[in-house]
Design a protein that fits this description.
The chain is of the alpha/beta class. About 25% of the residues lie in helices and about 30% in strands. The chain contains five helices and twelve strands. Strands 5-4-1-6-9-10-11-12 form an eight-stranded mixed sheet, with helices on both faces. Strands 2-3 form a two-stranded antiparallel sheet. Strands 7-8 form a two-stranded antiparallel ribbon. A hairpin with a 5-residue loop joins β2 and β3. Bound molecules: ligand PMT. The site of ligand PMT has 29 residues, from α1, α3 and β9.
Length: about 220
């Protein structure tokens, strides 16, 4: 039987002002890196698209390293039509400078009011192209109204599941080895996966996707 193909994104993106200064966030890539390993162990042929991170390649079929939201979009667009399961855990920067200067700008010349523009919404773009049978899982890192906002993303981006990530407590979420997650499902309420090491939560998430969605493919 043909192996299912899984695409996982992880890590931050960097949106450069000049050759050394950028907009980003503290995502380490750990959550998605563990998901990619768990997906491969589940027997899915898995590609990890990883933003700037100190992590080594994951032990899945392929790790592709990218820098910006535009790079991540282009990689994902190239892989999406052959993807059965998309798990989008990357913390994509929401904005980028309108202008990027090729060299390092001298301190005295830095624009103190740079113009910003929105980055492409990768998950929303892919979701608009989805074909029957593809499973789309998004993430939502929130500090308040966590389940409500996650449910909004489920609807807006037409997903099967959103991993609602409560990042309000110190030591959980961004850059930590631990996380707290609850799954928000289309028309089927929520499933709390609780607190714990990202490695264990990744295993639980992949197990849940296999049981709930893959079985019915
Ligand atoms: O990397 P770690 O240090 O392990 O931390 C893990 C994490 C906290 C980054 C991760 O668990 C997580 O919650 N990732 C989502 C971060 C987030 O805030 O996403 P969002 O609410 O901005 O976006 C919602 C969804 O749309 C996400 O699936 C995101 O990947 C996607 N998105 C967002 C913006 C954009 N331009 N394109 C996108 O595809």
């Amino acid at each position: 039987m043909k192996k299912l193909r899984c695409l996982v994104t992880a890590g931050p993106t960097r949106e450069y002002f000049d050759s050394v200064r950028f907009i980003s966030n503290p995502s380490s890539g750990k959550m998605g890196w563990h998901i990619a390993n768990a997906a491969e162990r589940a027997g899915w042929e898995t590609t990890l698209v990883l933003g700037p991170s100190g992590l080594p390649d994951a032990s899945c079929s392929r790790t592709v390293r990218v820098v910006s939201a535009q790079d991540m979009l282009e990689e994902c667009l190239g892989l999406f039509c052959d993807t059965d399961i998309l798990i989008m855990s990357a913390a994509v920067s929401d904005v980028r400078p309108k202008v990027r200067v090729g060299q390092k700008v001298k301190k005295a010349d830095i624009d103190l009011n740079p113009q910003l523009e929105r980055t492409p919404d990768i998950l929303a773009t892919l979701s608009q192209m989805r074909r029957a049978g593809q499973i789309l899982v998004g993430f939502a890192a929130e500090t308040h109204n966590v389940l409500e906002y996650a449910a909004g993303k489920l609807e807006q981006k037409n997903l099967d599941c959103v991993v609602a990530n409560d990042v309000s407590a110190a030591g959980l979420g961004f850059a930590s080895d631990y996380n707290r997650v609850c799954l928000v499902l289309r028309g089927a309420g929520t499933v709390d996966l609780g607190n714990g090491p990202k490695e264990i939560l990744a295993e639980k998430l992949v197990g849940f996707i296999a049981e709930r969605f893959v079985k019915n493919l």
